[in-house]
Amino acid sequence: MPLRIPDKLPAIDILKQENIFVMTNQRATTQDIRPLRMVVLNLMPLKITTETDLVRLLSNTPLQLELHFMKLKSHTPKHTPVEHMMSFYRDFETMRDEKFDGMIITGAPVEQLPFEKVAYWHEITGIFTWARTHVTSTLYICWAAQAGLYHHYGVPKYPLKTKMFGIFEQHALYPTLPIFRGFDDIFSMPQSRHTEVRHSDIERNDALTLIAESPESGVGMVMARGGREFFITGHLEYAPNTLDEEYKRDAGKRQDVALPVNYYRANTPALGPVVTWRAHANLLFSNWINYYVYQETPYNIDDIE
Q1: DSSP tag of 273
Q2: 192 is in an annotated binding site
Q3: Which fold has domain 36-297?
Q4: Which residues contact 80 (CB under 8 A, 6 or more apart)?
Q5: Is 181 within any annotated ligand binding site?
Q6: CA distance 294 to 290
Q7: Whole-model pTM?
Q8: With contact defined as beta carbons under 8 Å apart, do 157 and 195 qualify?
Q9: Which of the residues are catalytic?
Q10: Domain boundaries, the chain
């Protein structure tokens, strides 16, 4: 896909080595079409890694996307160079008058805190509310999915006895939905979380539709407002080695660290992971962009409401 991203973003060189096509702003300006304006609110600690993961998936459609990165004014990242944040990210306050065709809000390492105890809760819930009138469709991932369901629909989260960690089969409950076009009946999704939202709470809210679920990991995907909001509890965007790096980082340092399930060959870290989710991850992001963003957004972006 002709993905239009800021010049010199580190993801460009990384993805060119993977034979993935990206387009810098300089080249994109020569094409006489309106690109879809996409914004990412990146809450993950390793922002360059998350940028690369998302750009990799967003690059798999023939539509031209113009990618912007948003940051919180009330939170200073500790694991990303200040120079990188200044070069590629803008505060929400400077973007609040703009409109976007699509938005992605990532997970964050704050899931074990009550929502209201998160330092940037007030600012981020303001962004959640803003997105409803300034974005055609919003994709909430992991903690953001739980936070969005809580803020918009009052769905609580619950602590898990043990970390949900590994690759889990998901069942598409409404396989004819455009978001699942081309999907198999069962698809894999990485999970890495200490809390959950529950089937019963989703089902009792008429505004929500549970569209994917796992017998092991529970709620997988929820849709609302006819596809203007999607809540994904896992990390389809994860690169093959992400869970491996997380496991090796925490093993021996925390009491609750176990091998990620359904991940390593023969359940042996030395043999490396078996990747079972990337095809469906690419398809899901492509379907979302095509059917819920491109097909629904007005040509005049100012008409989004």
Answers
A1: B
A2: yes
A3: Rossmann fold (3.40.50)
A4: 45, 46, 47, 48
A5: no
A6: 5
A7: 0.89
A8: yes
A9: 142, 235, 237
A10: 36-297
